[in-house]
Write the structure tokens for this entry.
Amino acid sequence: MIGILDYGLGNVLAVRSAYREIGVKTCLLSEPSDISSEVLGLVIPGVGSFGEGVHCLENTGWFSYLKDNGVRGLPVLGICLGMQMLFTSSEEDSAINGLNLIKGKIRLLPKGEKPVPNMGWCDVVNLGESILLNEILDVKYYHVHSYGYRSTANQGSSYIIFNGEPVIVSIKLNNIFGLQFHPEKSLKQGLQALNNFYSYCLNENNS
Amino acid sequence: MRIIPSLLLNNRALVKTVSFSGERYLGDPINAVRLFNEYDAHEIVILDINCNEPDFEFLEKLASKCRMPVAYGGGINTLEQALKVIKLGYDKVILSRLLLKNPDEVEKIVSHLGSQSVIACIEIERDNKGVLGLRLHKKINLVNHIRQVSRLGVGEFFLYDSDREGSRKGLLINDFLMLKAEIDVPVIIGGGVESYNELRELSSMGLDAVAVGSLFVYFGKREAVLINYDLRKYGLY
């Protein structure tokens, strides 16, 4: 079963219904004590601002749980704001500390011909093999964000080019995964990404 | 250019209007959403034209069928309502009356949800001299309203031509381009799209997004109800 953090900010039911479509059971977890032995992995949905998101994670006890869980504990997938909160901090609310599980700063997207927020379907490029995104080539996923992790990609991560600069949209560090786009709203390829996370959780649990 | 089916709801039914009146019942919105799923529609907009507050029970059902990004507007007056709409599975909230009634609440919603989740809907109409104005408040200057709303931090604008809405007479593109020039964030325009060929022409004009109503729900001169989304055929997908 996949546990979806119901921490007060996010399109929780959209993630649930996406997993339902691919036959994966989910449960909504209001706080860390809700995690049962059946939960093989956690998803942090996120639609909101960085400051509010961290605030809500702190209020529900999830912030300290996730820090303690670290990068080698239960597998975690952060989506959109969920991914951004895995990092050290964000320009959106620079006084607020993120989970710091992945070192780096989330920044405002670069200015240019395309307006910010970045809204719509973007081509995602995989550098090397991506556990979540397989070898699916020439595929677009749905993005809606004003901030992102602006960096060159490492092996295993994936990026889009926005106003000429790379923005990392899929990242993995040990058992921590982040997707900047919304897999629960990205048609078949998005559901595949969610399914790949579930498969990863099953493998981790069996080993 | 994003092309976005725009569905109107009234009392849990899918409806169409012309200039927001003369309502015609089209069918079950859940079926419509299912069909757009099957067509792999990129995103949709759902607007309830007759509610004082969101019909959460129905919206939950509808959202659970949407596989694509979906924005909802209609009766959202508070932050709590906006948060609940997002929780049910919608990706963005569309605010219209609230922009005039309570801009402070709009700012609160933007600050909690992030600008990328909030769309400001501006319904435009023309007076008898052809001057553009706000449908919801005839005395407020349209451009000033747009500038004020921009300052609230919304991430996107939805400019809707209520004169041409439902008419399939074609978008009055120059009016939109003039208003779009005042706005720094993405802009969805809509109201009167006539044909797939028009969408093709629009796709080379540097627009961010176009909302389409009647074209995707009607077929033929007699306006038989037929949900369609032939973007691939016209090279627009």
In short: Chain A is about 25% helix and 30% strand. The radius of gyration of chain A is 16 Å. Residues 20 and 198 of chain A are 12 Å apart (CA to CA).
